[in-house]
Write a structure and sequence with these properties.
Blueprint (H helix, E strand, L loop, with lengths): L1 E10 L2 E11 L4 E5 L6 H8 L7 E6 L2 E2 L5 H11 E5 L10 H11 L4 H14 L15 H13 L5 E5 L7 H18 L2 E5 L3 H6 L2 E6 L2 E5 L1
Parallel strand pairs: 3-8, 3-9, 6-7, 7-8
Antiparallel strand pairs: 1-2, 1-4, 4-5, 9-10
């Protein structure tokens, strides 16, 4: 599903990624761990086409994305990749349902189709009764589940998460972690998760350890 070959990335004189080779299989849930400054988030951003490498090849779902033009890349990202961040980044003026609908609108889906799709995934996540609530009326765990629903509305092949449970308490962390596996089992998405949470890393199919811009080991 994701094939990275000899990925390099520098910011000025700082080399952040040093020749990364990595394959993520379809339906795999992989975690990326390592100390701060190891290059984890930069690698995730390159997987998500939010940033481009200085060198190497990025192939996602059979498409070499680092040779695409920006307009093509934006459309590809919207259709194929979902993002979940540590802070939910929900728009405060919209309801949970409306926040989930936004990527579907960007993809060109009609209002009724987007509304039905958003309602269906919120119901799957146990949030049907919270669909009309705005973010300030939701708990931290509910906000993050809405953010996950938003990432999934266009049925992306890949979901990338950067410290998705970093701002949650223990109970909500456990619920969110279980949700990733439930979603993989139901929808077949591939998940790549950057995390400092050792409990989550131990649950994933594979843990990729990074240090100083390189993959140190995989277990």
């Amino acid at each position: 599903m994701i094939h990275l070959e000899n990925i390099t990335k520098s910011f000025g004189n700082l080399q952040v990624l040093r020749g990364i080779d990595l394959e993520i299989e379809k339906g795999e849930i992989a975690s990326i761990v390592g100390p701060s400054g190891a290059g984890k988030t930069t690698l995730l951003q390159i997987m998500g086409t939010l940033d481009m490498p200085d060198g190497g090849s990025v192939v996602i779902d059979g498409t070499q994305v680092n040779r695409m033009r920006e307009r093509e890349l934006s459309a590809f990202r919207n259709r194929h990749i979902g993002f979940v961040f540590q802070f939910h980044q929900l728009l405060p003026e919209f309801t949970a349902l409306e926040n989930v609908m936004i990527p579907a609108f960007i993809a060109g889906r009609g209002q009724q189709e987007a509304k039905e799709a958003a309602a269906e995934i919120l119901e799957f996540m146990g949030l049907a009764e919270r669909a009309s609530h705005k973010p300030n009326e939701l708990s931290g765990g509910e906000k993050q589940r809405v953010a996950v629903a938003r990432a999934l509305i266009n049925h992306p092949a890949v979901v990338l998460a950067d410290e998705p449970s970093g701002s949650l308490d223990t109970h909500n962390k456990e619920e969110l972690h279980q949700l990733f596996f439930d979603l993989r089992n139901r929808f077949g998405q591939t998940f790549v998760i950057v995390t400092h949470d050792e409990g989550l890393a131990q649950l994933t199919d594979r843990t990729i350890h990074m240090i100083d811009g390189e993959i140190n080991k995989m277990v």
